[in-house]
Write a structure and sequence with these properties.
Helix content is 38%, strand content 12%. The chain is of the alpha/beta class.
Length: 176
């Protein structure tokens, strides 16, 4: 797999996590969702999940197995969020390293193709998921108001660099 394919998400969402239509995952035979935490579930430097994201999370956990997967080394922070929803979690994951994500796949006992990794970063979330063959979803970071933030300089830079390296970043629903 070349660098372009490693950096290219399967689905570039038009909004944040809360804007993802869950039925798409069912249509794609996805059985589990691995979720980035900071800027995907929570606004940066926040402990409070926005109402729209909370509603999406509550709906998602009915049909899919969920696992929180964060590079944040603050285990207490990630654990507190995971415990609030009785979800398994990985803190200090070191994305895009494969080892911690392989452990999650082993726990889920699912093939990589039936697991989606959803996050807001190309060079951590998308790269980690693509290295193991997961279905990758790139979302806009969630802002402090719970709405998608398009002003995240790091994400804009990552998307620009990925495009320069040949990755497609067109927004829209994935093609079956």
């Amino acid at each position: 797999m070349n660098l372009r394919h490693l950096l290219e998400p399967n689905w570039v969402a038009k909004g944040s996590l809360a804007d993802l239509p869950l039925e798409v995952f069912a249509d794609l035979n996805i059985k589990a969702l691995v979720l980035d935490v900071d800027c995907t579930l929570l606004p940066q430097h926040s402990q409070e999940i926005p109402a729209d994201v909370l509603l999406w999370l509550q709906k998602a956990r009915i049909q899919w197995r969920l696992h929180l997967f964060s590079n944040n080394p603050n285990r207490r922070r990630i654990e507190a969020i995971a415990n609030a929803f009785s979800l398994p979690f990985t803190a200090g994951a070191g994305k895009p390293r494969r080892g911690p994500l392989r452990l999650v796949l082993n726990q889920l006992q699912l093939p990589a193709a039936q697991v989606a990794l959803i996050g807001d970063r190309v060079f951590t979330d998308v790269l980690a998921g693509n290295r193991l063959g997961l279905f990758t979803v790139l979302v806009h970071p969630v802002g402090s108001d719970g709405k998608p933030s398009t002003k995240d300089a790091l994400q804009r830079s990552e998307r620009t660099l990925a495009r320069w390296l040949g990755a497609r970043m067109e927004q829209g629903l994935p093609q079956n």
